Amino acid sequence: MRFKERNKKILTLLIFFLTISSGSCVEASSRSHISKSKIIPAEVSFYEQVLPSLSGKSVVLVTNPSGIGRHPEKILKEFKDKKVKIKHLIGLEHGFLGLEEDFSKSPVTMDETFQLPIYHIYKVKNSEIPAILKGADAVVFDVVDMGMRCYTYVSVLKRLMDNLPDPNTKFILLDHPNPALYLGARGEGIQKKFLNFAGEFPSLFFTGMTLGEAAAFYNGEYLGGKVKLDIISPENLKRGFDWEREGIPWSTPSPNLPTLDSAKNYLGLVLLEGVNVSVGRGTQAPFVYFGAPWMNEPEDIIPELNEDSKGDYYYQSVFFKPTFGPFKGEICRGLRLTVVNRKYDPIRMAYNLTAIMKKKYKDFKWRQYADGSHNIDFLWGTERFRESVDAGKTYEEFKASYAESESSTNRQIQKYLIY
């Protein structure tokens, strides 16, 4: 009898804890439906207020499916209805549809949807850009950015602002939140010898700004305010926003960032592009999987990596075979990164991950160009990341070496912050 009563009590307690756990899970759910979002995208104001004001004008359009470019039929209809002429298009790194893996081989191609020339800025000399923009009453710029100097959309922004031939041309920018905004300005600035298309904007590795704020910063600090900048902000956006709790939909800005998870991982794993591994390009999980054919028994480093993560993220072993990029068609062993704390420190993660991989694997190498220079130096902006790892410095020692620059930059950009 006592045995039955004891079992009954155990069963009652079990049901109680399951009920509490279930309720907690519901409460803890961090993902809101898009219909619950209070943030109104900038494109609403653009179509309702800004576009009608451009009636009778001609514009150069810079967008892709992360902006108004996801609905080209609407662009064609609304611009025609409002009597706004699209002079031509500006191509970003992954093309107008955001599908291209490789850079266009030609500086100008014909877009099939709009039947207009599309100029690929990364293939065009800076001296040629004024002629492309000549005669435009406005430039309309609308893409989702990653808030990072190495993400090339901010380089396109800079080049267009630098080369506006007419001071009366409006530069209309539809602003968006980005996944790195919570970090502030982080990392180092870029040394002149490492300037490149993926490292051209005068900011730290993480800009600490939206594209709109970055445009205002660049206009104010480097161009003397000469650009007639019109930033259209999303309504109700606040700097401390949580992407999923706010119900903000993720709009893919480039082929290898299809989900918010891959975008969050990209913040740190992009630095592995400076190492001889695949970061999952050409797989079903870009910037989630990473590894190489030489990365044997990755399980051996998982305990150390997971302990180092402080509960912010974790790793699991994985096999994958890229269809393009490094190790195309080869079976790779490696790791899968899952971020738990969406406000983790991606620089710390990348630095410690790289250091542990270098310590474990004799085949680890810094990726080099034909002239012997190192890819990671162009990504980070200086030699310090690579040299600190090679010297066996801790992350804390590495971070302390540029902490003063971070502080001064965050003070400098403060007056340009909108949210």
UniProtKB/TrEMBL annotation:
<dbReference type="Pfam" id="PF20732">
    <property type="entry name" value="NamZ_C"/>
</dbReference>
<feature type="domain" description="Peptidoglycan beta-N-acetylmuramidase NamZ C-terminal">
    <location>
        <begin position="266"/>
        <end position="419"/>
    </location>
</feature>
<dbReference type="GO" id="GO:0033922">
    <property type="term" value="F:peptidoglycan beta-N-acetylmuramidase activity"/>
</dbReference>
<dbReference type="InterPro" id="IPR008302">
    <property type="entry name" value="NamZ"/>
</dbReference>
<feature type="domain" description="Peptidoglycan beta-N-acetylmuramidase NamZ N-terminal">
    <location>
        <begin position="59"/>
        <end position="260"/>
    </location>
</feature>
<keyword id="KW-0732">Signal</keyword>
<dbReference type="Pfam" id="PF07075">
    <property type="entry name" value="NamZ_N"/>
</dbReference>
<protein>
    <recommendedName>
        <fullName>DUF1343 domain-containing protein</fullName>
    </recommendedName>
</protein>
<dbReference type="InterPro" id="IPR048503">
    <property type="entry name" value="NamZ_C"/>
</dbReference>
<dbReference type="InterPro" id="IPR048502">
    <property type="entry name" value="NamZ_N"/>
</dbReference>
<feature type="signal peptide">
    <location>
        <begin position="1"/>
        <end position="28"/>
    </location>
</feature>
